[in-house]
Amino acid sequence: MPIPEGWKRSHFSADIKPSIKGEKVTVLGMVLSVRKQGGLCFVILQDRYGTLQVTAHKDRTEPQVFERLTGLKAHSYIGVKGVVKAIEKAPRGAEVEVDDLYVFSEPKRLPPFDMFAKTLPSLDKRLEIRAVDLRRPTAQAVFKIRHQVLQAIRSFLVEKGFIEVNTPKIIGSATEGGAALFPLLYYDKEAFLAQSPQLYKEQLSSAFERVFEIGPVFRAEKFKTPRHLSEITSVDVEMAFADYEDVMKLLEEMIHRAITDVLDKCSEELKALEIELEKPRLPLKRLTYNEAYKTLKKLDVEVSWGEDFSTPALRKLGELNPGFYFITDWPTVSKPFYIKPREDNPRLSESFDLMHGSLELASGGSRVSSRDLLARRLRRQGLNPKLFEYHLRVYEYGMPPHAGFGLGLERFMMAITGISNIREVTLFPRDQTRLTP
Ligand code: AMO
Q1: What is the CATH number of domain 13-105?
Q2: Is any ligand 1 atom within 6 A of the Cβ of residue 321?
Q3: CATH 3.40.50.300 holds for 132-425
Q4: How many whole angstroms from 352 Cα to the centroid of ligand 1?
Q5: Structure confidence at residue 52 (pLDDT)
Q6: What is the DSSP secondary structure assignment for residue 116, as one 8-state letter?
Q7: Which pLDDT belongs to residue 300?
Q8: Domain spans of the chain?
Q9: Hey, how many other C-beta atoms are within 10 angstroms of the C-beta on 32?
Q10: Furthest C-alpha separation in the chain
Q11: Among 29, 91, 196, 199, whose CB has the most other CB atoms within 10 angstroms?
Protein backbone atom coordinates (compact mmCIF):
# COMPACT_ATOMS: atom_id res chain seq x y z
CA MET A 1 0.00 0.00 0.00
CA PRO A 2 1.46 3.41 -0.87
CA ILE A 3 1.82 5.94 1.95
CA PRO A 4 -1.61 7.68 2.07
CA GLU A 5 -1.98 11.13 0.56
CA GLY A 6 -0.72 13.81 2.92
CA TRP A 7 1.11 11.43 5.26
CA LYS A 8 4.67 11.79 3.98
CA ARG A 9 7.12 12.96 6.68
CA SER A 10 7.97 16.66 6.70
CA HIS A 11 10.39 16.62 9.68
CA PHE A 12 12.45 14.13 11.67
CA SER A 13 12.48 14.25 15.48
CA ALA A 14 15.84 16.03 15.42
CA ASP A 15 14.34 18.90 13.37
CA ILE A 16 11.71 19.71 16.00
CA LYS A 17 13.31 22.64 17.81
CA PRO A 18 12.06 25.83 19.50
CA SER A 19 13.38 27.78 16.48
CA ILE A 20 10.54 26.40 14.29
CA LYS A 21 7.74 27.01 16.79
CA GLY A 22 4.39 27.64 15.14
CA GLU A 23 5.28 25.53 12.05
CA LYS A 24 2.89 22.82 10.89
CA VAL A 25 4.70 19.49 10.63
CA THR A 26 4.09 15.84 9.85
CA VAL A 27 6.18 13.45 11.94
CA LEU A 28 6.28 9.66 11.63
CA GLY A 29 7.64 7.00 13.92
CA MET A 30 7.07 4.25 16.46
CA VAL A 31 5.32 4.83 19.77
CA LEU A 32 7.61 4.16 22.72
CA SER A 33 5.15 5.14 25.44
CA VAL A 34 1.74 6.74 25.98
CA ARG A 35 0.89 8.60 29.18
CA LYS A 36 -2.48 10.15 30.02
CA GLN A 37 -2.53 12.84 32.65
CA GLY A 38 -5.92 14.45 33.22
CA GLY A 39 -6.93 16.16 30.00
CA LEU A 40 -3.46 15.68 28.48
CA CYS A 41 -1.92 12.83 26.53
CA PHE A 42 1.87 12.55 26.06
CA VAL A 43 3.26 10.20 23.46
CA ILE A 44 6.97 9.52 23.05
CA LEU A 45 7.64 8.83 19.40
CA GLN A 46 10.90 7.32 18.11
CA ASP A 47 12.28 7.77 14.62
CA ARG A 48 15.62 7.41 12.84
CA TYR A 49 17.18 10.26 14.80
CA GLY A 50 15.80 9.71 18.29
CA THR A 51 12.72 10.56 20.28
CA LEU A 52 10.15 13.32 20.25
CA GLN A 53 7.29 14.33 22.55
CA VAL A 54 3.86 14.56 20.99
CA THR A 55 1.09 16.09 23.11
CA ALA A 56 -2.68 16.27 22.79
CA HIS A 57 -4.98 18.53 24.84
CA LYS A 58 -8.44 17.06 25.29
CA ASP A 59 -10.11 20.43 24.94
CA ARG A 60 -8.19 21.38 21.79
CA THR A 61 -8.08 18.08 19.88
CA GLU A 62 -10.83 16.37 17.89
CA PRO A 63 -12.43 13.85 20.29
CA GLN A 64 -11.84 10.80 17.99
CA VAL A 65 -8.16 11.77 17.54
CA PHE A 66 -7.71 12.20 21.30
CA GLU A 67 -9.40 8.85 22.05
CA ARG A 68 -7.41 7.00 19.39
CA LEU A 69 -4.13 8.49 20.63
CA THR A 70 -4.70 7.65 24.29
CA GLY A 71 -5.66 4.08 23.33
CA LEU A 72 -2.41 3.44 21.43
CA LYS A 73 0.08 0.83 22.63
CA ALA A 74 3.84 0.98 22.40
CA HIS A 75 5.11 -0.45 19.07
CA SER A 76 2.33 1.26 17.09
CA TYR A 77 3.69 2.94 13.97
CA ILE A 78 1.96 6.28 13.50
CA GLY A 79 1.95 9.63 11.77
CA VAL A 80 1.08 12.87 13.54
CA LYS A 81 0.25 16.24 12.03
CA GLY A 82 0.50 19.15 14.37
CA VAL A 83 2.08 22.42 15.35
CA VAL A 84 5.52 22.82 16.92
CA LYS A 85 5.45 24.36 20.40
CA ALA A 86 8.43 25.58 22.37
CA ILE A 87 8.20 23.82 25.73
CA GLU A 88 11.10 24.08 28.11
CA LYS A 89 10.31 20.81 29.90
CA ALA A 90 10.03 18.76 26.69
CA PRO A 91 13.08 16.61 25.81
CA ARG A 92 14.20 18.81 22.88
CA GLY A 93 12.82 22.04 24.25
CA ALA A 94 9.97 21.59 21.78
CA GLU A 95 7.07 19.24 21.12
CA VAL A 96 4.36 18.69 18.52
CA GLU A 97 0.78 19.42 19.53
CA VAL A 98 -1.48 16.97 17.73
CA ASP A 99 -4.08 18.00 15.15
CA ASP A 100 -4.42 14.74 13.27
CA LEU A 101 -3.29 11.13 13.60
CA TYR A 102 -2.74 8.25 11.18
CA VAL A 103 -2.09 4.73 12.48
CA PHE A 104 0.01 2.67 10.04
CA SER A 105 0.23 -0.43 12.21
CA GLU A 106 -0.72 -1.61 15.68
CA PRO A 107 0.96 -4.54 17.46
CA LYS A 108 -0.93 -7.80 17.92
CA ARG A 109 1.25 -8.55 20.95
CA LEU A 110 3.80 -6.81 23.12
CA PRO A 111 7.35 -7.98 23.89
CA PRO A 112 8.12 -9.13 27.45
CA PHE A 113 10.11 -5.95 28.15
CA ASP A 114 9.48 -2.24 28.35
CA MET A 115 11.30 0.03 25.89
CA PHE A 116 13.01 1.90 28.76
CA ALA A 117 13.44 -1.01 31.22
CA LYS A 118 16.72 -1.21 33.14
CA THR A 119 16.29 -4.91 33.91
CA LEU A 120 15.61 -6.99 30.87
CA PRO A 121 14.79 -10.63 30.12
CA SER A 122 17.79 -12.82 29.23
CA LEU A 123 19.60 -12.05 26.01
CA ASP A 124 18.48 -15.39 24.59
CA LYS A 125 14.83 -14.44 25.06
CA ARG A 126 15.44 -11.04 23.46
CA LEU A 127 17.35 -12.55 20.55
CA GLU A 128 14.24 -14.56 19.62
CA ILE A 129 12.72 -11.20 18.59
CA ARG A 130 15.97 -9.35 18.05
CA ALA A 131 14.59 -6.66 15.72
CA VAL A 132 12.01 -5.79 18.41
CA ASP A 133 14.75 -5.76 21.07
CA LEU A 134 16.67 -3.35 18.81
CA ARG A 135 13.83 -0.83 19.06
CA ARG A 136 14.98 -0.05 22.61
CA PRO A 137 16.84 3.29 22.64
CA THR A 138 19.83 1.83 24.51
CA ALA A 139 20.14 -1.10 22.08
CA GLN A 140 19.97 1.40 19.22
CA ALA A 141 22.71 3.46 20.82
CA VAL A 142 25.16 0.53 20.57
CA PHE A 143 24.62 0.16 16.84
CA LYS A 144 24.68 3.88 16.15
CA ILE A 145 28.11 3.92 17.81
CA ARG A 146 29.12 0.91 15.70
CA HIS A 147 28.05 2.79 12.58
CA GLN A 148 30.20 5.78 13.62
CA VAL A 149 33.17 3.50 14.31
CA LEU A 150 32.87 2.03 10.81
CA GLN A 151 32.56 5.48 9.24
CA ALA A 152 35.65 6.67 11.12
CA ILE A 153 37.73 3.62 10.20
CA ARG A 154 36.76 3.92 6.52
CA SER A 155 37.54 7.64 6.38
CA PHE A 156 40.82 7.18 8.23
CA LEU A 157 42.06 4.40 5.96
CA VAL A 158 40.95 6.15 2.77
CA GLU A 159 42.79 9.31 3.91
CA LYS A 160 45.89 7.16 4.39
CA GLY A 161 45.67 6.00 0.78
CA PHE A 162 44.03 2.59 1.27
CA ILE A 163 41.45 1.22 -1.13
CA GLU A 164 38.52 -0.87 0.01
CA VAL A 165 38.30 -4.37 -1.43
CA ASN A 166 36.11 -7.44 -1.08
CA THR A 167 37.55 -10.93 -1.32
CA PRO A 168 35.83 -14.32 -1.72
CA LYS A 169 34.01 -15.79 1.23
CA ILE A 170 33.73 -19.21 -0.43
CA ILE A 171 37.21 -20.66 -0.56
CA GLY A 172 38.97 -23.90 -1.43
CA SER A 173 41.44 -24.24 1.48
CA ALA A 174 42.34 -22.93 4.93
CA THR A 175 44.15 -19.63 5.36
CA GLU A 176 45.04 -19.85 9.03
CA GLY A 177 46.56 -23.19 9.97
CA GLY A 178 44.70 -24.79 12.83
CA ALA A 179 41.49 -22.82 13.03
CA ALA A 180 38.46 -24.92 12.19
CA LEU A 181 36.54 -24.17 9.00
CA PHE A 182 32.88 -24.54 8.08
CA PRO A 183 32.68 -26.92 5.11
CA LEU A 184 30.03 -26.53 2.45
CA LEU A 185 29.06 -28.17 -0.79
CA TYR A 186 30.15 -26.05 -3.76
CA TYR A 187 28.43 -27.73 -6.71
CA ASP A 188 30.11 -31.15 -6.57
CA LYS A 189 33.20 -30.05 -4.62
CA GLU A 190 33.95 -29.43 -0.98
CA ALA A 191 34.59 -25.77 -0.15
CA PHE A 192 34.74 -23.69 3.03
CA LEU A 193 33.56 -20.39 4.43
CA ALA A 194 36.52 -17.99 4.65
CA GLN A 195 38.04 -17.64 8.11
CA SER A 196 40.06 -14.56 7.05
CA PRO A 197 40.88 -12.60 3.89
CA GLN A 198 44.53 -13.09 4.87
CA LEU A 199 46.05 -14.55 1.70
CA TYR A 200 43.94 -12.43 -0.64
CA LYS A 201 44.80 -9.19 1.12
CA GLU A 202 48.50 -10.10 1.00
CA GLN A 203 48.28 -10.83 -2.73
CA LEU A 204 46.38 -7.59 -3.33
CA SER A 205 49.04 -5.57 -1.48
CA SER A 206 51.40 -6.52 -4.33
CA ALA A 207 49.03 -4.87 -6.83
CA PHE A 208 47.46 -1.97 -4.91
CA GLU A 209 50.01 -1.49 -2.07
CA ARG A 210 47.37 -0.46 0.48
CA VAL A 211 44.11 -2.38 0.84
CA PHE A 212 41.47 -2.90 3.46
CA GLU A 213 38.39 -5.04 3.78
CA ILE A 214 35.53 -4.85 6.26
CA GLY A 215 33.53 -8.02 6.01
CA PRO A 216 32.34 -11.23 7.60
CA VAL A 217 34.70 -14.05 8.58
CA PHE A 218 33.64 -17.45 9.85
CA ARG A 219 35.25 -19.36 12.70
CA ALA A 220 34.20 -22.91 13.55
CA GLU A 221 36.18 -23.03 16.79
CA LYS A 222 33.98 -24.59 19.46
CA PHE A 223 34.35 -21.82 22.02
CA LYS A 224 31.51 -21.11 24.42
CA THR A 225 32.57 -17.77 25.86
CA PRO A 226 31.16 -14.24 25.95
CA ARG A 227 34.04 -13.24 23.62
CA HIS A 228 33.62 -15.70 20.74
CA LEU A 229 31.20 -15.96 17.85
CA SER A 230 31.12 -18.19 14.77
CA GLU A 231 30.60 -15.24 12.42
CA ILE A 232 32.29 -11.90 13.04
CA THR A 233 33.03 -8.69 11.19
CA SER A 234 36.73 -8.27 10.60
CA VAL A 235 38.58 -5.08 9.69
CA ASP A 236 41.51 -6.34 7.64
CA VAL A 237 44.35 -4.09 6.55
CA GLU A 238 47.41 -4.87 4.44
CA MET A 239 50.20 -2.50 3.44
CA ALA A 240 53.20 -2.93 1.12
CA PHE A 241 56.64 -1.55 1.97
CA ALA A 242 55.79 -1.67 5.65
CA ASP A 243 56.75 -3.74 8.69
CA TYR A 244 54.99 -4.54 11.95
CA GLU A 245 56.09 -1.29 13.60
CA ASP A 246 54.46 0.69 10.78
CA VAL A 247 51.15 -1.14 10.99
CA MET A 248 51.05 -1.01 14.79
CA LYS A 249 51.32 2.76 14.48
CA LEU A 250 48.57 2.75 11.84
CA LEU A 251 46.32 0.58 14.03
CA GLU A 252 46.72 2.73 17.14
CA GLU A 253 46.00 5.87 15.12
CA MET A 254 42.96 4.16 13.62
CA ILE A 255 41.44 3.27 16.99
CA HIS A 256 42.28 6.73 18.30
CA ARG A 257 40.42 8.26 15.36
CA ALA A 258 37.42 5.94 15.84
CA ILE A 259 37.16 6.86 19.54
CA THR A 260 37.62 10.58 18.81
CA ASP A 261 34.80 10.48 16.25
CA VAL A 262 32.52 8.56 18.62
CA LEU A 263 33.19 11.16 21.33
CA ASP A 264 32.46 13.99 18.87
CA LYS A 265 29.39 12.54 17.18
CA CYS A 266 27.75 10.09 19.58
CA SER A 267 27.42 12.08 22.81
CA GLU A 268 23.71 11.19 23.16
CA GLU A 269 24.37 7.50 22.63
CA LEU A 270 27.26 7.50 25.12
CA LYS A 271 25.01 9.22 27.64
CA ALA A 272 22.18 6.74 27.06
CA LEU A 273 24.60 3.87 27.71
CA GLU A 274 26.26 5.67 30.65
CA ILE A 275 29.68 5.22 29.06
CA GLU A 276 32.62 7.36 30.05
CA LEU A 277 34.88 6.99 27.08
CA GLU A 278 38.38 8.40 26.95
CA LYS A 279 40.76 8.84 24.07
CA PRO A 280 43.73 6.47 24.42
CA ARG A 281 47.10 8.15 24.86
CA LEU A 282 49.43 7.45 21.95
CA PRO A 283 51.79 5.73 21.52
CA LEU A 284 50.13 2.79 23.25
CA LYS A 285 52.21 0.72 25.62
CA ARG A 286 54.18 -2.04 23.89
CA LEU A 287 54.93 -5.10 25.96
CA THR A 288 56.98 -7.92 24.43
CA TYR A 289 55.76 -11.50 24.80
CA ASN A 290 58.89 -12.27 26.81
CA GLU A 291 58.24 -9.37 29.19
CA ALA A 292 54.62 -10.50 29.69
CA TYR A 293 55.81 -14.09 30.13
CA LYS A 294 58.37 -13.11 32.81
CA THR A 295 55.85 -10.95 34.69
CA LEU A 296 53.33 -13.79 34.75
CA LYS A 297 55.99 -16.33 35.84
CA LYS A 298 57.00 -14.03 38.70
CA LEU A 299 53.37 -13.88 39.82
CA ASP A 300 53.12 -17.71 39.71
CA VAL A 301 50.60 -17.67 36.90
CA GLU A 302 50.87 -20.82 34.75
CA VAL A 303 52.48 -20.03 31.40
CA SER A 304 54.20 -22.20 28.86
CA TRP A 305 56.72 -20.45 26.57
CA GLY A 306 55.66 -20.64 22.94
CA GLU A 307 51.95 -20.94 23.61
CA ASP A 308 49.16 -18.37 23.67
CA PHE A 309 48.38 -17.01 27.13
CA SER A 310 45.60 -18.86 28.97
CA THR A 311 42.44 -17.08 30.14
CA PRO A 312 43.72 -16.68 33.75
CA ALA A 313 47.04 -15.35 32.41
CA LEU A 314 45.21 -12.83 30.19
CA ARG A 315 43.05 -11.83 33.12
CA LYS A 316 46.20 -11.07 35.13
CA LEU A 317 47.70 -9.09 32.23
CA GLY A 318 44.42 -7.20 31.99
CA GLU A 319 44.56 -6.27 35.67
CA LEU A 320 48.07 -4.94 35.19
CA ASN A 321 47.21 -3.15 31.91
CA PRO A 322 43.59 -2.00 32.01
CA GLY A 323 43.42 0.00 28.75
CA PHE A 324 44.71 -0.53 25.21
CA TYR A 325 48.22 -1.99 24.78
CA PHE A 326 50.21 -4.20 22.42
CA ILE A 327 51.88 -7.53 23.11
CA THR A 328 54.65 -7.83 20.53
CA ASP A 329 57.31 -10.26 19.31
CA TRP A 330 55.43 -13.52 19.84
CA PRO A 331 57.23 -16.85 19.59
CA THR A 332 57.28 -17.85 15.92
CA VAL A 333 55.73 -21.26 16.76
CA SER A 334 52.62 -19.56 18.16
CA LYS A 335 51.89 -17.57 15.00
CA PRO A 336 50.58 -18.60 11.56
CA PHE A 337 52.93 -19.51 8.69
CA TYR A 338 52.65 -16.11 6.99
CA ILE A 339 54.10 -14.20 9.97
CA LYS A 340 57.75 -13.24 9.50
CA PRO A 341 60.36 -14.57 11.95
CA ARG A 342 62.74 -11.95 13.31
CA GLU A 343 66.04 -11.89 11.46
CA ASP A 344 68.11 -11.44 14.65
CA ASN A 345 66.27 -14.23 16.50
CA PRO A 346 64.04 -16.49 14.37
CA ARG A 347 62.44 -18.08 17.45
CA LEU A 348 60.59 -14.78 17.80
CA SER A 349 58.44 -13.15 15.15
CA GLU A 350 57.61 -9.63 13.96
CA SER A 351 54.09 -9.89 15.33
CA PHE A 352 51.65 -8.26 17.72
CA ASP A 353 48.26 -8.50 19.35
CA LEU A 354 46.32 -5.39 20.27
CA MET A 355 44.77 -5.89 23.69
CA HIS A 356 42.20 -4.07 25.78
CA GLY A 357 42.70 -5.32 29.31
CA SER A 358 42.37 -9.09 28.99
CA LEU A 359 40.59 -8.97 25.63
CA GLU A 360 42.44 -9.53 22.35
CA LEU A 361 41.12 -7.08 19.77
CA ALA A 362 43.46 -7.52 16.82
CA SER A 363 46.49 -9.39 15.63
CA GLY A 364 48.99 -8.70 12.91
CA GLY A 365 52.59 -8.53 11.88
CA SER A 366 55.20 -8.34 9.17
CA ARG A 367 54.62 -11.05 6.57
CA VAL A 368 56.94 -13.52 4.93
CA SER A 369 57.53 -12.20 1.41
CA SER A 370 59.88 -14.91 0.10
CA ARG A 371 58.18 -17.80 -1.71
CA ASP A 372 60.65 -20.39 -0.49
CA LEU A 373 60.47 -19.36 3.14
CA LEU A 374 56.67 -19.35 2.92
CA ALA A 375 56.68 -22.94 1.55
CA ARG A 376 59.07 -24.01 4.33
CA ARG A 377 56.90 -22.33 6.98
CA LEU A 378 53.80 -24.09 5.62
CA ARG A 379 55.53 -27.48 5.82
CA ARG A 380 56.82 -26.77 9.32
CA GLN A 381 53.27 -26.07 10.46
CA GLY A 382 52.05 -29.38 9.03
CA LEU A 383 50.25 -27.76 6.08
CA ASN A 384 50.50 -29.04 2.53
CA PRO A 385 52.13 -26.41 0.22
CA LYS A 386 50.30 -28.03 -2.75
CA LEU A 387 47.00 -26.74 -1.33
CA PHE A 388 48.49 -23.23 -1.35
CA GLU A 389 49.88 -23.43 -4.89
CA TYR A 390 47.52 -20.64 -6.04
CA HIS A 391 49.06 -18.40 -3.38
CA LEU A 392 52.73 -19.40 -3.69
CA ARG A 393 52.52 -18.89 -7.47
CA VAL A 394 51.98 -15.13 -7.00
CA TYR A 395 55.18 -14.90 -4.93
CA GLU A 396 57.16 -16.29 -7.88
CA TYR A 397 56.31 -13.10 -9.75
CA GLY A 398 57.83 -10.93 -7.00
CA MET A 399 56.35 -9.66 -3.74
CA PRO A 400 57.10 -6.43 -1.87
CA PRO A 401 57.73 -6.53 1.89
CA HIS A 402 54.33 -6.12 3.52
CA ALA A 403 52.56 -6.10 6.86
CA GLY A 404 49.01 -5.88 8.16
CA PHE A 405 46.48 -6.70 10.80
CA GLY A 406 42.95 -7.95 11.42
CA LEU A 407 40.76 -6.20 14.00
CA GLY A 408 37.63 -7.92 15.33
CA LEU A 409 34.97 -5.21 15.08
CA GLU A 410 32.70 -6.77 17.74
CA ARG A 411 35.61 -7.05 20.18
CA PHE A 412 36.47 -3.40 19.54
CA MET A 413 32.83 -2.49 20.24
CA MET A 414 33.06 -4.41 23.54
CA ALA A 415 36.12 -2.32 24.45
CA ILE A 416 34.39 0.96 23.58
CA THR A 417 31.06 0.25 25.26
CA GLY A 418 32.29 -1.85 28.19
CA ILE A 419 29.63 -4.44 27.27
CA SER A 420 30.95 -7.83 28.33
CA ASN A 421 28.92 -10.13 26.08
CA ILE A 422 29.85 -10.02 22.39
CA ARG A 423 26.27 -11.01 21.46
CA GLU A 424 24.93 -7.68 22.77
CA VAL A 425 27.11 -5.76 20.29
CA THR A 426 26.14 -8.01 17.35
CA LEU A 427 22.85 -7.53 15.50
CA PHE A 428 22.18 -11.20 14.78
CA PRO A 429 24.84 -13.26 16.57
CA ARG A 430 25.87 -16.71 15.36
CA ASP A 431 27.27 -19.24 17.78
CA GLN A 432 27.16 -23.00 18.32
CA THR A 433 23.58 -22.90 19.50
CA ARG A 434 22.14 -20.11 17.39
CA LEU A 435 21.33 -20.08 13.69
CA THR A 436 18.19 -17.90 13.83
CA PRO A 437 16.98 -15.19 13.57
P1 AMO B 1 43.04 -13.61 14.30
O2 AMO B 1 42.65 -15.03 14.04
O3 AMO B 1 43.79 -13.32 15.56
O4 AMO B 1 43.95 -13.05 13.14
O5 AMO B 1 41.72 -12.71 14.25
C6 AMO B 1 41.79 -11.31 14.30
C7 AMO B 1 40.82 -10.77 15.35
O8 AMO B 1 39.51 -11.20 15.08
C9 AMO B 1 38.80 -11.39 16.30
N10 AMO B 1 38.32 -12.77 16.39
C11 AMO B 1 37.17 -13.14 16.97
N12 AMO B 1 36.21 -12.43 17.58
C13 AMO B 1 35.15 -13.09 18.05
N14 AMO B 1 34.96 -14.43 17.94
C15 AMO B 1 35.88 -15.20 17.33
N16 AMO B 1 35.67 -16.50 17.20
C17 AMO B 1 37.05 -14.55 16.80
N18 AMO B 1 38.15 -14.97 16.14
C19 AMO B 1 38.89 -13.88 15.89
C20 AMO B 1 39.76 -11.05 17.41
C21 AMO B 1 41.09 -11.26 16.77
O22 AMO B 1 42.11 -10.52 17.38
N23 AMO B 1 44.67 -13.11 9.59
C24 AMO B 1 44.87 -12.66 10.96
C25 AMO B 1 44.99 -11.16 11.05
C26 AMO B 1 46.25 -10.62 10.40
O27 AMO B 1 47.36 -11.07 10.71
O28 AMO B 1 46.12 -9.69 9.57
C29 AMO B 1 43.71 -13.16 11.80
O30 AMO B 1 42.66 -13.50 11.33
O31 AMO B 1 39.55 -9.69 17.74
Answers
A1: 2.40.50.140
A2: no
A3: no
A4: 12
A5: 96
A6: T
A7: 97
A8: 13-105, 132-425
A9: 19
A10: 86
A11: 29
